[in-house]
Specification:
The protein is an alpha/beta fold. The chain has four helices and 37 strands. The strands form six sheets. It has a 23-stranded mixed sheet that branches.
Length: 456
């Protein structure tokens, strides 16, 4: 009986089949064909390094040696889809002028769009490149994640683009871009136009003249100014490019922000911020969050009745005892608790939204009339949850801004100077200044339960 001749070349393959080694005994002289035959018997056929094999065949060995002779290629994952939004929502960020001063004017405006106008575009994800292990087996790549446009009403999604469905103006709900109906008035609102009511946004290229009223569900942009008239936005902001010269009878009210070049003899109320560039004079100002009056000429002049929720930022105050300046303030700990509760609720809402979205996708595949009827009844619940989640996000952002931007539990910051004889109140404490101060921050300290004044 013939004895089998032991092999002089051993082959070892890594558990993931991405590497292969050969082992050659001490003093054994092996040929290239022997190594290739051993690899072939083991199934190794990809990524073989012939130069290394030539080297091991020529090498003099005094001990058993292990050589890495084959390496596989890992698959290259695909790139995720990339979405570019061509417009961003206006933000209340101060503009820095050439001389380094801060200008809060010209912050937000209505962006008009036309039917078919591109709002966002997508670069599709790629499939990636396949790899191979040393056995020559194909390793499929992980494809890039598909993109999804964050859009709402008035936007049509095509293959790789989102476009305006009709003429209108851009609107944002949370992070979703949409298009709402827009009414454009070329000129003044006067006897030729009459009072206005509109369910979307309004742009007025002129002024709102004495005695007239403009109402909109969303933003109102007045590129002129406002006389002794009224402008009310029930769900958005009001932007006044010139100023408000109310002569004691103007009413400007917005659920979000009011922005104007100046405010004189008017009543202004904003659910969030009132932003003024030049001055406030003989006016009643109410802001749920802040009065921002930090343009280089930003002043509070003479008698004004001002009440804000968290902070006043102003360049200077030139007033007297007739000024009624009140910061209602807030409870910082209570806001933190409210923030935690909102985040917990939103997490629960998002989980339910994901569940319903999966259920809706599955039901949409079934053309059974009974299933489609259930789906029809389910959609309003789903849409309601989406709307609720967006409102929660907005409220979380509002609270975060209040906590981040406000020192203490309510503050007044004056960049230039504040005259003596000025009195003000923050929460439950009040102060009357006996001397002029410059570059000063006044805030309510919850621990000391009083107003702290810090002068730079």
């Amino acid at each position: 009986m013939l004895e089998s001749i032991p092999k002089r070349v051993g082959v070892k393959i890594s558990p993931d089949k991405m590497l292969a080694w050969v082992t050659v005994g001490a003093y054994d002289q092996v040929s290239h064909s022997e190594v290739m035959e051993a690899l072939a018997e083991a199934g190794v056929c990809y990524g073989i390094n012939k130069e290394r094999i030539e080297h091991l065949c020529l090498e003099n060995r005094t001990s058993s040696t292990k050589y890495l002779v084959a390496e596989g290629n890992n698959p290259i994952p695909g790139e995720d889809a990339k979405i570019t939004y061509h417009y961003r929502p206006p933000d209340l960020k101060p503009e820095i002028t050439e001389d380094g001063s801060v200008d809060y004017y010209n912050l937000g405006s209505i962006i008009q769009v036309e039917t078919g106008q591109f709002l966002a575009s997508m670069q599709p994800g790629t499939e990636g490149e396949p790899g191979y292990n040393v056995l020559g087996q194909l390793l499929a790549p992980k494809p890039g994640r598909p993109g999804k446009f964050e859009v709402s009403k008035g936007v049509l999604v095509k293959t790789n683009a989102a476009v305006a469905e009709y003429d209108g103006a851009l609107t944002w709900q949370g992070g979703k871009i949409g298009v709402t109906r827009l009414q454009v008035i070329k000129g003044d609102v006067d006897f030729n136009i009459g009072n206005l009511q509109f369910p979307g946004k309004i742009v007025i290229t002129g002024w709102i003249r004495d005695g007239f009223k403009v109402e909109a569900e969303e933003d109102i942009e007045i590129r002129g100014g406002i006389e002794n008239a009224s402008a009310i936005s029930y769900g958005g902001s009001i932007f006044v490019h010139q100023g408000i010269n109310g002569r004691g009878g103007a009413l400007i009210k917005a659920r979000k922000n009011v922005e104007a070049r100046y405010v004189q003899e008017a009543e202004v109320e904003a659910g969030e911020d009132v932003v003024v560039n030049e001055y406030v004079l003989r006016s009643n100002i109410k802001a749920g969050q802040a009065l921002l009056l930090q343009g280089r000429r930003g002043k509070i002049l003479g008698y004004n009745d001002i009440m804000v929720g968290s902070r006043v930022l102003v360049n200077s105050i030139q007033s007297d005892r007739d000024l009624n300046l009140v910061v209602k303030g807030f409870d910082r700990r209570a806001l933190f608790r409210e923030l935690r509760k909102l985040k917990e609720d939103m997490q629960s809402e998002e989980e339910r939204i994901r569940f319903l979205a999966a259920k809706i996708r599955e039901m949409a595949k079934d053309q059974n009339p009974d299933t489609l009827e259930v789906l029809r009844k389910l959609l309003p619940t789903y849409n309601s949850l989406l709307e609720k989640a967006e409102k929660s996000k907005e409220e979380i952002a509002r609270i975060n801004n209040t906590l981040r931007l406000t020192k203490g539990e309510g503050m007044i910051k004056v960049k230039d100077r504040i005259h003596n004889a000025t009195s003000f109140r923050i929460k439950n404490d009040s102060v009357e200044l006996k001397r002029e101060l410059r570059d000063v921050t006044m805030y309510y300290d919850a621990n000391e339960r009083r107003i702290i004044i810090v002068s730079s």
